[in-house]
Design a protein that fits this description.
By secondary structure, the chain is an alpha+beta fold. About 35% of the residues lie in helices and about 20% in strands. It has a single domain, classed as 3-Layer(aba) Sandwich (NADH Oxidase). The strands form 3 sheets. It has a 5-stranded antiparallel sheet with strand order 1-2-6-10-7, with helices on both faces. A 3-stranded antiparallel sheet has the order 3-4-5. A two-stranded antiparallel sheet has the order 8-9. The longest helix is centred in the middle third of the chain and has 30 residues, at about 115-140.
């Protein structure tokens, strides 16, 4: 398994990225929000290190699922279709890390709703950036082969319990991430999933038309 530690500055996450995730695309943020971000940022720059890991495995398809090491990943019809033509698969995990978990827990104890919300959004951005860096490391490994998007349990018809099989493949606790009985990860700002690899796979732009979750707040009518 390939594992990487990524100091916060190497994630290339900006304050503007966080504001954009909060919906401030064409809106100037309020001064109190800017102050809160500026207060949080030095802690991130000096204390937070994200982590990521992946393995590359041979695999085969059956109906609505992928088989790796005799373990079935019930990815569902949508993701299985988007993985078509893959001859190998990267199983991955990425996390904002334990130190960020400590920061967000301390923020919750202080009880400031704005700072709690800001930390929550920032943690999601850190985990996403760690996933992007993981893809860069993966690209160095696979050379001229192509790869698909990242796909994770809980989306596009892949049940959250699919985490259990992913974690078995990753050895149990990749990057120090643990999995609860209800398949939630700790640190909470973590992601895991699968990526297809092959000469003839395609990386499609993420779009709501592939997602079956009608209650998602990003779903556009």
């Amino acid at each position: 398994m390939k594992t990487y530690s990524i100091p916060f500055p190497e994630l290339n996450l900006s304050r503007e990225d966080v504001l954009l995730e909060m919906g401030y695309k064409d809106i100037t943020p309020e001064p109190y929000l800017t102050d809160a971000i500026n207060e949080l940022w030095p802690k991130l720059e000096h204390e937070v290190t994200a982590e990521c890991a992946f393995i590359i495995e041979e695999g085969t398809f059956i109906e609505n699922a992928v088989i790796i090491r005799d373990l079935e990943l019930s990815t569902g019809s949508t993701i299985t279709t988007l993985l078509e033509n893959s001859v190998q698969f990267a199983i991955f995990a990425a996390t904002a890390g334990r130190r960020f978990e400590e920061i967000i827990n301390k923020t919750k104890k202080e009880g400031d709703i704005l700072k709690i919300y800001l930390a929550d959004i920032t943690g999601s951005c850190i985990a996403e950036k760690a996933g992007e860096r993981m893809e860069e490391f993966l690209e160095n490994e696979i050379g001229c082969n192509m790869h698909t998007n990242r796909f994770s349990p809980g989306y596009c018809g892949w049940h959250l319990t699919g985490q259990r099989t992913l974690f078995k493949l990753l050895g149990g606790n990749p990057c120090g991430i643990s999995l609860s009985e209800v398949c939630l990860m700790t640190p909470i700002k973590s992601i895991s999933g699968i990526i297809g690899i092959g000469e003839n796979v395609s990386k499609k732009q993420y779009a709501c038309q592939y997602c079956e979750l009608e209650t998602c707040y990003k779903k556009r009518k």
